[in-house]
Amino acid sequence: MTDRLNTIFGWLLFAGVVALMLRFVMGFVMPDAERPEQLGYVIEGVDTGDGAAQGPALATLLAMGDAAAGANSFAKCVACHTIEAGGAEGIGPNLHGVLGTAIATHAPGFAYSSALADHGGEWNYENMDAWLASPRAFANGTKMSFAGLSDPQERANVILYMLENGGGPPLPEPPAEEPVAEEGATGEAAVEEVTDEGVDADSMEAADAG
Ligand code: HEC
Q1: CA angle 148, 153, 155 (to 5 degrees)
Q2: Nearest CA, atom 37, ligand 1
Q3: Is the pLDDT higher at 47 or at 56?
Q4: 122 pLDDT exceeds 50?
Q5: Nearest to 93 by CA among 163, 139, 144
Q6: Dist CA 155 CA 165 (whole Å)
Q7: Mutation test of ligand 1: which of 94, 131, 146 has the most ligand atoms closer than 8 Å to its C-beta?
Q8: Of 58, 62, 90, 176, which is the most exposed, with the fewest CB atoms less than 10 Å away?
Q9: Whose CA is nearest to atom 41 of ligand 1?
Q10: b or e along 151-181 (b: 16 or more beta carbons within 10 Å of the residue's beta carbon)?
């Protein structure tokens, strides 16, 4: 009897040790396997979440924007771009009047990357905003080696500056209902809080009475 119990305990102990060893080994193997995946995800999230998810719409940023501030920011571009009419191509193409043109066609003499040339579409405001936020995310393999402008308002300002230099499509109408919707949401939250307090007070009174 004792022998059989010993055997059973022996096997249980062995199984436990094996399980522990497996977890130990997995602990070494799994983080290495998961890590690049997670980091990649986080970086992508930062890229997209930054501009699009929160904050005012692009149309609002353009309406509030400042082309003169955009001219200052354009200092980050002049190493590679000219913007005046007939300006020379540099490392990047001349940008005079680029807004509204088909992507990667504006400067016919410039050797665009196939990543940008094959992108399709035109430089409307959404595309330009996405491009300036992260050229590489917009056209993976582009030869514009520029990290991007992470501040949405700065992007809008630079776009307005480009609009001043050669024109482009009409600016989008800012969504008028946006601030109203926010007020509505705050109002609802406030109402809910009041109701909660009301319930609490009631139940406390009931407790006192009882
Ligand atoms: C390091 C050099 C460099 C910098 C800095 C740079 N660009 Fe570029 N840009 C390029 C190159 C190169 C291309 C062509 C990309 C391709 O063909 O993939 C390009 C393409 C573009 C295009 C597309 C033009 C077209 O004809 O379709 C726009 C718009 C643009 N850049 C705007 C900007 C703005 C605005 C800035 C500053 C915020 C900037 N770039 C900073 C090198 C640069």
Answers
A1: 35
A2: 77
A3: 56
A4: yes
A5: 144
A6: 15
A7: 146
A8: 176
A9: 77
A10: ebbbbbbbbbbbbebbebeeeeeeeeeeeee
